[in-house]
Amino acid sequence: MHQWAPGERERHLAEIDEQGYTILEGVVPDDLRLELVERIDRAMDDAGVGLGTNVFLGRRTRRLFNLLARDPFFARVPLFEPTLSLAEGVLDEGLLLSSLTAISMGPGQEAQPFHADDGSIPLPRPHVPLTCIAIWALTDFTPENGATRLVPGSHRADHIPRRGEVTDGWVEAVMPAGSVLVYDGSVWHGGGENTTDERRLGIVCNHCAGWVRQEEDQLLALDREYVAGLPPRLQRMVGYSVYRGLMGHVDQVDPGTWFDPDRPSEMVWDRIR
Predict the structure, then answer these.
(1) Is 189 exposed, middle or buried (0-12, 13-18, 19+ CB in 10 A)?
(2) Tens digits of residue pLDDT in 101-119
(3) Who's near 66: CB < 8 A, 6+ residues apart?
(4) Whether 229 contacts 189, CB under 8 Å
(5) Looking at the structure, do residues 166 and 243 belong to the same domain, yes or no?
(6) Residues 79, 129: one domain?
(7) How far apart are CA 219 and CA 230, in angstroms?
(8) CA 109, CA 195: separation in Å to the nearest integer?
(9) How far apart are CA 245 and CA 99, in angstroms?
(10) Burial letters 19-36, b for 16+ CB under 10 A, else e
(11) Residues 252 and 165 in one domain
């Protein structure tokens, strides 16, 4: 169990509130970090994960989504006390695990466009925190290998980054392996450029507010074979769909296509090149 120093948790929460992010340096034990690296590499190989196919996913980057389904060992990440405690402070104790993804950024990867992780949610900005994300540095994050770039205070902006919009007010989340970057999902950010000959490996643990869901959990209540016999519109309504091309995907796949392989995918990745 992590032991906070007096006032330490409050200081990190204040930083997230004021600048949109904070860094917990060296909090991940080295044995846990190394075990995660080994299991991620094994899971990526087992799944045959290739490089991304567009500028956002990264054409020199491998991503493995849905880690929790790959190996129960990955349950240690969303339950890790320091980061979970901060996420609960930003959201509340009823938060949900929204996604758990491993990202291996290879040599030659270009900088990712600035974006906000809650950019698919069409609410006036700024708004109350809807998501809180923790990026685990499983290798060093340096200016040379693509440390995450962030724009301090951008979680209070009145819009998300527009296509091609660039700012010169960004900073880099430079941190040693075993550190964790925690940020409000409204913060403008993006992976940097990897100019080294080594990969930059991390885990992204995305939490969302517990109220961002249906009142009745249709996905748990309804058997998939039963849903297959429902009208396509109702299939979408109970959750076999993606919202704005992203929210609700399964391993980058629109689950609505499971029932009809001829149905066009609504995934945003299938429209970006």
Answers:
(1) buried
(2) 999 999 999 999 999 999 9
(3) 99, 100, 101, 250, 251
(4) no
(5) no
(6) yes
(7) 13
(8) 7
(9) 15
(10) bbbbbbeeebeeebbeeb
(11) no
